[in-house]
């Protein structure tokens, strides 16, 4: 969720805004619709904070800290976060549709998409390791499991059981089938055996320039953790609203 937020207009919690009669947010954008989950967790955190210290902690800061603490709680690294972000009063459906990297991108397109935001290919691979947790919709990987050649046959067969050729678009499968609720380096080991769920996942290990980095992370989780944490710190600081810009929303789903 944090990635989908900052990749549009920076760390401003625009992705949390609900549609209204005269406002269209980012939740129905192609990369987000029926894919982003956990909004109610942010709501709960915000509600508790508003009770104890109203008008102090922004939704953007909540999203940033929740992402870090969620990773740490599942066994991953932690990192220091600067606080004081404010929340946007707008969102951009068009930017969400055009800027967020899709699951069908090839390696060069992935590298370019992150470079447009100031991230290196190394940081792109490290951030992709976030797919060691989470799930994806059948719609987003159907073409890969039925039509691509660089996929482990038994893995494809297992995933097909929950993702038919037609229907079941919203059926979920874990991005990392080895340890789906542990933040570890299994995602990269899966790529080595052609068990990447999304086309964009497997592109990181398909004979291209990032193969060596996948091999490094597969054999050294500490290196992955360090690189991931550093990339997240960089991401956390991407175009935040501060000072008098934006607002501190009382409800993360709507502007004040």
Automatic annotation (TrEMBL):
Residues bound to Ca(2+) 2 are: 132, 176, 184
Return the broad EC class: oxidoreductase
Q: Show where the Plant heme peroxidase family profile domain sits.
A: 1-256
Which positions are annotated as binding substrate?
A: 101
Q: Which Pfam families match?
A: peroxidase (PF00141)
Any single GO molecular-function term of the entry would be: metal ion binding
**Any idea what this protein is called?**
peroxidase
Give the species this sequence originates from: Coffea arabica x Coffea canephora
Q: Which gene encodes it?
A: POX2
């Amino acid at each position: 969720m944090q990635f989908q937020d900052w990749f549009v207009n920076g760390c401003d919690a625009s992705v949390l805004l609900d549609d209204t009669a005269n406002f269209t947010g980012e939740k129905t954008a192609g990369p987000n619709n029926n894919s982003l989950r956990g909004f109610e967790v942010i709501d709960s955190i915000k509600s508790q904070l508003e009770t104890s210290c109203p008008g102090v902690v922004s939704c953007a800061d909540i999203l940033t800290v929740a992402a870090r603490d969620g990773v740490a709680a599942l066994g991953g690294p932690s990192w220091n976060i600067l606080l004081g972000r404010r929340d946007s009063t707008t969102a951009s459906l068009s930017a969400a549709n055009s800027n967020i990297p899709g699951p069908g991108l090839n390696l060069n397109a992935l590298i370019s998409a992150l470079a447009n935001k100031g991230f290196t290919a190394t940081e792109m691979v490290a951030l992709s390791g976030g797919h060691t947790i989470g799930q994806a919709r059948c719609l987003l990987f159907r073409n890969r499991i039925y039509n691509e050649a660089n996929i482990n046959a038994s893995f494809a067969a297992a995933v097909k059981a929950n993702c038919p050729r037609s229907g079941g678009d919203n059926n979920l499968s874990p991005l990392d089938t080895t340890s789906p609720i542990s933040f570890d380096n299994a995602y990269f080991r899966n790529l080595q055996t052609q068990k990447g769920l999304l086309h964009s996942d497997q592109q990181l290990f398909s004979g291209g320039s990032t193969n060596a980095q996948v091999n490094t992370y597969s054999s050294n989780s500490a290196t992955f953790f360090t690189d991931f944490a550093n990339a997240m710190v960089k991401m956390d600081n991407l175009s935040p609203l501060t000072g008098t810009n934006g607002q501190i929303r009382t409800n993360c789903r709507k502007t004040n």
